TrEMBL record:
GO MF: protein-ribulosamine 3-kinase activity
Organism, scientific name: Parathielavia appendiculata
Matches recorded under PANTHER family: FRUCTOSAMINE 3 KINASE-RELATED PROTEIN, PROTEIN-RIBULOSAMINE 3-KINASE
Any single Pfam family the record assigns to this protein: Fructosamin_kin
Catalytic activity: N(6)-D-ribulosyl-L-lysyl-[protein] + ATP = N(6)-(3-O-phospho-D-ribulosyl)-L-lysyl-[protein] + ADP + H(+)
Superkingdom per UniProt: Eukaryota
InterPro entries in the record: Fructo-/Ketosamine-3-kinase, Kinase-like_dom_sf
EC number: 2.7.1.172
Protein name: protein-ribulosamine 3-kinase
Length: 256
């Protein structure tokens, strides 16, 4: 741990438990730098085998990418100043939503294609966790095959384009806090990748909001025992009714 500190010859003054984590342990390291000044570091550990390694590595690479474009970690700065290293959507490593691996370690020219891959991955994880539900599977397939292409492909067609922006990737109130010294807000526990900037704020309208919230809600359904699966299904039905009402009716009428 000492050898990992960024300043050589630093002296650790104290280590303490600090904050809380649902999936690991968090701590605070206070160190004295070679020039005599004091520096505080935040430490996260996760005893979850390969999953824990993916979580920690993903967060490290996410925060490193965020800090490179926005040292003060401001969403608008991240979205405006970031540049995808490939010009595509995706990321260079797997990042996680809580302890669930996201489909991020790939590069796609199409935002619709990456969004579909990510949602299909979460649907598969949810089915493994809770088992097959035929009615749910119907609306999931409609979302993947009909709704995503209809809503997202026009963003990159007929001369239109969207910039792959660096996003936090798991932004909610428990991943935000206020700096006690400055009073400024900051974010942490990132699971970043390059995406449509509206993904971060769940879209500008109700339809986009529902679509972009599905992956997060599926994660909740997998991780926390509740009725979230039913809520996800209801939101998918709302989307299908808005975008492809006839197809939804046809699927519902099919026997078996």
């Amino acid at each position: 741990m000492i050898s990992a500190l960024p300043y050589p010859d630093s002296k650790v003054l104290s280590t303490n438990n600090y904050g809380m984590s649902l999936w690991g342990q968090t701590g605070k390291i206070t160190a004295e730098l070679p020039d005599g000044t004091t520096k505080h570091y935040f430490l996260t550990t996760a005893n979850l085998g390969d999953t824990g390694h993916a979580m920690i590595l993903g967060e490290y690479e996410s925060l490193k990418a965020i800090h490179a474009v926005s040292p003060n970690i401001r969403l608008a700065d991240m979205h405006k100043k970031s540049q995808s290293p490939t010009g595509k959507f995706g990321f260079h490593v797997t990042t996680c939503h809580a302890k669930l691996r996201q489909m991020t370690d790939c590069w796609e020219d199409s935002w619709a294609a990456l969004c579909r891959k990510q949602l299909a991955h979460m649907i598969e994880l949810e089915e493994v966790k809770h088992g097959e539900w035929p009615e749910f599977k119907i609306v999931c397939q409609l979302i993947l095959d009909k709704v995503i292409p209809r809503l997202l492909e026009p963003l990159q067609s007929n001369g239109r384009s969207i910039k792959p922006c660096l996003v936090h990737g798991d932004l909610w109130d428990e991943n935000t806090a206020t700096d006690m010294a400055t009073g400024e807000p900051f974010i942490f526990d990132a699971g970043s990748f390059y995406a449509h900037n509206e993904y971060e704020i769940r879209g500008s309208g109700m339809t986009e909001n529902l679509l972009y919230s599905l992956r997060f809600d599926l994660g909740t359904a997998i991780l926390i025992p509740c009725n979230q699966r039913q809520i996800v299904k209801e939101n998918m039905i709302i989307l299908c009714k808005k975008v492809f009402p006839n197809e939804l009716a046809c699927f519902a009428e099919k026997p078996g």
